[in-house]
Amino acid sequence: MRALKLLAGCVALALAFPAASQAEELTIYSGRGEALIGPIIKQFEADTGIKANVRYAGTSELATLLQEEGDQSPADVFWAQDGGALGAISELFADLPAEMNEGIAEAFRNVNNKWVPTSGRSRVLVYSKERVKEDDLPASINDLTDEKYRGKVAWAPTNGSFQAFVTAYRVAHGDEATKAWLEGMIANDTKVYKNNGSQIEGIANGEIDFGLVNNYYLGRYLVTDKDYPVAMTHFASGDVGNLLNVAGAGIVSASDNQETARKFLDYLLSPAAQQYITLQGNEYPVIPGLIVNTTLESFATIQDISPRIDIDQISDLEGTLALLREVGLL
């Protein structure tokens, strides 16, 4: 039934986005992984006749590249993994019509209309169902510097969403407190992994007991194995470790292809694309009225437990990268 509804949505989407009358191309810099967004881009090409040339890399890497390229950038669209990176280079984006953000849930909306959110995600703590008892779960992300968690926790310092979280920590608690937490985690022998998925696999393999990831990763493993030995939880309400963030996309102001780029952004905000993102990607849609992904915590709950940090406030990516270099994590 779910597949039929998704198929029907794609048919409706094709009718809403007629094929290009002439050959059009679009260059997309994507900090989002190909495994998730590749099918959306292929469907966009099929429905519109527009050819998409995609460069995949880390969000912070692409943000830096766009700054270096400036007016010479070949990119038309930057699709980033987190709102912090979008805010950090917002001056490189063309202004968008206000109506593009009007139908988007207020918690995700970019009030300056420099980019549009494409999905929401929450930071979570993943843990071993076999080795961790309920009493072992920390109330705060700050508790992970305690001796009881020595050598048992993983993180991914090069990951864009982790870096956005560190920026949020700086906003909430200041640079000195953030540096102290990072150094405390390092001193507590926190294990470095390359990304979110490898942390989850490390828990399943018995290498570590806890990991700091985005909410949607674990669902990918549970789809193929409902008994996968990893669970996830949040910290106490309001803890910065529960950061609610977004993925989003903006149109590069240097682009000579902005009308086509707008078609792509409209496509990402369409009901069918949003339905795919939430049902297949386990992320929160940014528009209402869709089939609910029952594996996700309710959006109302996520809003309630998240720290009160405006997405636009977590834009100092360069300051965060400098801090991570200072403590030796980059």
TrEMBL record:
Gene3D superfamilies: Periplasmic binding protein-like II (3.40.190.10). CDD domains: PBP2_Fbp. It holds the Pfam family SBP_bac_1. Keywords: Periplasm, Signal. The keyword Signal applies. Residues 1-23 form the signal peptide. SUPFAM superfamilies: Periplasmic binding protein-like II. Belongs to the bacterial solute-binding protein 1 family. This is Iron ABC transporter substrate-binding protein. It comes from Aquamicrobium zhengzhouense.
